[in-house]
Amino acid sequence: MTAMRLPQMASSWLLVGAAAALAGLLASLAPAAAETLILSLSTHRVAITSTYTGSSIVVFGAIERDERTVARAAPYDIVITVRGPRRTTIVREKEKVGPLWLNTSQRRFVDLPTYLAVLSSRPIGEIAGGPFLTRYRLGLAMQITAPGMEQIVSEEPFRDALLRLKKEQRLFAEDPRGVTFLTPTIFRAPITLPAVAPTGNYDVEVALFVDGAQLARQTTNFEVVKTGFEQATVTLAHDHAILYGLGVVIMAVVFGWLATVIFRRD
Amino acid sequence: MHIYLPIAEMSVNMFTLLAMGAAVGFISGMFGVGGGFLMTPLLIFLGIPPAIAVATQTAQITASSVTGALGYWRRKALDFKLGGVLVAGGFVGTLLGVWFFNVMSRLGQLEFIIVISYVTLFGIIGSLMLAESLKAIWATRRGVVPRSRRSGEHPWYLGLPWKMRFHRSQLYGSVIPIVTLAMLIGFAGAVLGIGGGFILVPALIYLFRIPAAVVVGTSLFQILFTMMAATLLHAITNQSVDVVLAMLLIIGGVMGAQFGARAGQNLKGESFRLLLAILVLGVGIRFAIDIVVEPQDPFSLVTVGARP
Fold first, then answer.
1. Transmembrane stretches, by residue range (chain A) (predicted)?
2. Does B149 or A164 have the greater pLDDT score?
3. Residue A189 forms beta bridges with which residues?
4. Do A226 and B247 lie within an 8 Å CB cutoff?
């Protein structure tokens, strides 16, 4: 199709020139397609080894502009959302039943990212106004709320508890100054992973804003994997459970026997 | 120095675990018990998921009871016949225990069951032990000679059918109560991550009047085999045995037990039982506090779903 069109376009250079001028004009009117984001992660693979105590990954990004891109009156804003592998999380609430405190009610958060981090160059509320937070699903609270569920009040204590407890475990993080601009168009942001962050795929979504409007959105990802001995142990324990169990029993017996040999007192 | 536990999927301080293993090993060496009843709760309080704490602890008890049982075997203070009957009952109990453990785990009630069991079992056993040892101390103070076993005096449960003679243990009676006891211990052991020596030893002494000389060795023999079975069954059915955690606990425990055994030699019988009773009761009370006192945070999180 392109091949067929080429001669036609060649014969109408004037028209193309006019179109280009029009496109430039349109670009200044509709800025949504003007900038592009280029992303790079310091690593795409976090390996869990025996001394693993968590990790840190750095997102580097550049905002690409070309000569037709209009000058912006306001500075660029970046919002980075990192989502870990999805699992179901149950929030339980204890209540007094007679003399005991027991788990009485619970809410299930199905397919909730086990890890969530929202990093931005400014507090999210300043980057985009209320309706845009919902529209672009920005911020931690938006990530754990299914669309249309924002108004349900009975869910609120459980949502709050989920946010609070996950933040305590450092599995949820919100850093309104987590994105640093090195130049007006180049930024970096460190993502910290605690040791309890589960293995699996992590999506990194970067959104570019100016004056509360989203200009570009780009995603990349990394994975957290067990390696070497740790991976071998898990594989053995799950796929060859009998062998693994026997191995642990034999190890225990040998250690117990060794103790009698080493510390024999008679 | 931190070390990553591949099955528990968390990073823990290696020296904390070694020190805990040594401390519990010291106590277990001193009292001649496995120490599971202290170690499993400590692991849970440390933040290790209860399922992993219980399953892994069975491996540690296996190691410590190998050491213990070998020592008693060398001194010929072990009744293999009685031990064999106890093991048979223990196996059935362990099998039921692991099954119950997995069902409760699937229903999401495992943590609650573990806590409730610790409170009730340890509360009852600890109180009984405390009362008994206080009575014994009181009696020695007043110079009363403890009543010794009279021939011809038999509790009713030894008169049940299927009688067997155990020469080393000076016991002739029905195996039904013995097997039942072993089954209960095996069941509790698999669910709670305890060897059950602190229940089995006094039960054999008070309920079956077995001489103290063979009772600890025989109970260690039973614990060794039931805990081997429990480790294997936990590993096969719920994959919760963490080999790295087990190794750290075993190494710490082996070291501690050697010093504990020496310290235990200078301890008098009554004060020995009093201390053990206080420890058992203490663990029960510690768990009771968790469910009686208003929690700092009424909310808690559980993540479910298959691991990749």
1. 241-263
2. A164
3. A59
4. no
